[in-house]
Design goal:
Elements lengths: L3 H11 L4 H8 L3 H10 L3 H10 L4 H6 L14 E2 L2 E2 L2 H6 L3 E11 L6 E14 H6 L7 E5 L14 E5 L10 E6 L2 E10 L3 E5 L9 E3 L1 H6 L2 E9 L14
Antiparallel strand pairs: 1-2, 3-4, 5-6, 6-11, 7-8, 7-11, 8-9, 9-10
Helix pairs in contact: 1-3, 2-3
Length: about 240
């Protein structure tokens, strides 16, 4: 790997990200990312990309020095103590996320969103760190249907942060609706109500629920969506349109 573009290509492969997905996250065109592969990452973007992918800027730019924060090719002393092999490898490891889906309950015809026993999805630690997600809060679900197309395609794996259930208008969340797993943009309504919006709004009109309907229909927010075979943009407050 002789250029920053070569190193970027490998990093995206390690994180299971396509050039198209990465481009969408960085708000550039796929052609921009392909140019970065060929010509190197622009200096103006170097620090941003290094932070997102949890690597050192110097390594990303030149290939010199430790790849990850906390790594050391030599035995350097940190606060009077050497960095152990386990410490150095931990920043590169993959972590497991439990997988949730709709499972049949004991009541005929009823489902509930529950964990699939002994089924895990592995994700690079740097993804959780970049998105500020605690491992114990991270679960995985699968998108069903085309209500979020072309944002999230049917069958895509989705990372959900159960630690973020407070609604920020316009962000995407996974929720359980009377036993059904759903993925929607959420907006708050007066009186503790909710607006559910699909990305494919032409085929799936907005749904409005009062606080009473939310309780009656057992609508429960599972968490904020931070990843779907790519990274989501960072959370930011948004106003209701």
């Amino acid at each position: 790997m002789n250029t920053s573009g070569d190193r970027l290509r490998v990093l995206l492969r390690e994180c299971h990200l396509s050039a198209t997905d990465f481009a969408a996250n960085r708000k550039v065109t796929p052609q921009h990312v392909n140019n970065w592969f060929k010509r190197g990452i622009p200096m103006a973007r170097m620090e941003e990309v290094a932070e997102l992918l949890s690597v050192n800027v110097r390594w990303l730019r030149s290939g010199e020095g430790p790849k990850h924060p906390g790594d050391s090719r030599d035995i350097h002393v940190l606060s009077g103590m050497g960095t152990s092999r386990s410490d150095r490898s931990s920043v590169r490891e993959e972590l497991e996320m439990p997988v949730y889906t709709e499972l049949q309950t004991q009541s005929p015809g009823r489902t509930a969103v529950s964990e699939i026993p002994n089924h895990k999805i592995r994700i690079a630690r740097r993804v959780l760190e970049a998105m500020d997600v605690e491992q114990h809060n991270a679960i995985c679900v699968a998108m069903v249907g085309n209500s979020m197309a072309d944002k999230i395609q049917d069958g895509s794996l989705i990372g959900v942060d159960r630690g973020r259930v407070h609604v920020i208008d316009g962000e995407m969340y996974a929720l359980e609706h009377d036993g059904m797993l759903r993925v929607k943009y959420l907006y708050r309504l007066p009186g503790a109500g909710l607006r559910l919006r699909s990305h494919n709004a032409g085929e799936y009109p907005d749904e409005l629920f009062s606080a009473e309907q939310i309780q009656e229909q057992h609508i429960h927010i599972l968490g904020w969506i931070f990843w779907w075979s790519t990274l989501n943009n960072r959370r930011h407050p948004a106003t209701m349109p």
